[in-house]
């Protein structure tokens, strides 16, 4: 397997990571095309291992994936460069959008447009939650999925438990009440 | 707010969840409910800004940092977003084989399901703040339906809802 230079890895990570809309899965698929099939920097097995580990790494899966690929190819400098290249350009754009929000607060028309996006954000959050649950609803363990998700809503809204406590309880439930991914 | 404290609070949210938006309930609880340094409206705007750009889901944390503490806050948010990613390195070194263990996968799937529930829980007060009339209700429900029934980019939802809001403002 060939290894890239730090500059090439950074430039490629920045290009793929900041020009692919749709979040982690489409971006990791684009990285797979580049790293595995086009440039042959990683084997399919290495990609599969890093992809799987990124799923169980806390935080944003895509960034963990980039850290894993960067580390595998060029050690810690590669990990740092890949994560920074994927994050920083879009982060600058986000800061600019946030700054513009503050500037536009006194403009009625701008606030009407922003009001529309804020309402959409509520739908977007609900869709994000639904998309996390949806694959589980198609499996035979849909009752488990509904109990855990519904239980989390209940504990947070009715019993006002801290989110971190709810997540801790969920991990415990996951260990005791195994899902289909745990097999028989 | 001190950027270091902000970094630690945001890190607590990003390092204890497994999806970009999963950190939202913890951030809301710490910054909106407990410390009152962020409003639900600003949190909604941060989510909208984060979803309007390419790059990793979860970038809204950078916007949250900017709302709370300006540019140093944005840097704190960026650092809190990136830090957990490096946990994969020791995992790659030592735990590679265990990631596929059934028990670990079961616990992670349970965490993901609970994160979904917590996102719904956090979305309720945000929706109350953002949905102030029939148009906003249509936009919120329409965005949900559009996103769960198509593979199109969230950018279209943000742009479309902004255009609808602007058109309503002109009328």
Overview of the molecule:
The complex is a heterodimer of chains A (184) and B (171). Chain A has helices spanning 6-19, 24-38, 44-55, 61-103, 108-137, 142-157, 163-176. Chain A is an all-alpha fold. Chain A has two domains: 6-103, no CATH class; 107-182, no CATH class. Chain A contains seven helices and no strands. Chain B has 171 residues and is mainly α. Chain B has one domain (3-130). Chain B contains eight helices and no strands. The longest helix of chain B is centred in the last third of the chain and has 29 residues, at 102-130. Classes of the chains: A mainly alpha (184), B mainly alpha (171). Chains A and B meet through helix 1, helix 3, helix 4, helix 5 and helix 6 of A and helix 1, helix 2, helix 3, helix 4 and helix 5 of B.
SSE diagram, text form:
The complex is a heterodimer of chains A (184) and B (171).
Chain A: H1 6-19, H2 24-38, H3 44-55, H4 61-103, H5 108-137, H6 142-157, H7 163-176
Chain B: H1 3-15, H2 24-34, H3 40-51, H4 60-82, H5 88-95, H6 102-130, H7 134-149, H8 154-170
Descriptive tags:
heterodimer; A: 184 residues; mainly alpha; 7 helices; 78% helix; flat; B: 171 residues; 8 helices; 75% helix; 0% strand
Percentage of β-strand residues of chain A? under 5%
> Helix/strand-derived class of chain A?
mainly alpha
**Averaging pLDDT over every residue of chain B, what do you get?**
86
> Which structural class do the helices and strands of chain B define?
mainly alpha
The percent of residues in helical segments of chain A reads over 70%
- Give a quick account of the main beta sheet of chain B: strands, pairing sense, barrel closure: none
Largest sheet of chain A: none
In DSSP terms (H or I, runs of 4 or more residues), the helix count of chain B works out at: 8
Mean pLDDT of chain A: 83
Give the terminus-to-terminus CA distance of chain B: 41 Å
User: Helix and strand succession of chain B?
Assistant: HHHHHHHH
Return Rg of chain A in Å: 20 Å
- Taken from the alpha-carbon principal axes, the silhouette of chain A is flat
Helicity range of the residues of chain B? over 70%
> What pattern of helices and strands is seen along the backbone of chain A?
HHHHHHH
Count of strand segments of chain A: 0
Termini gap of chain A: 38 Å
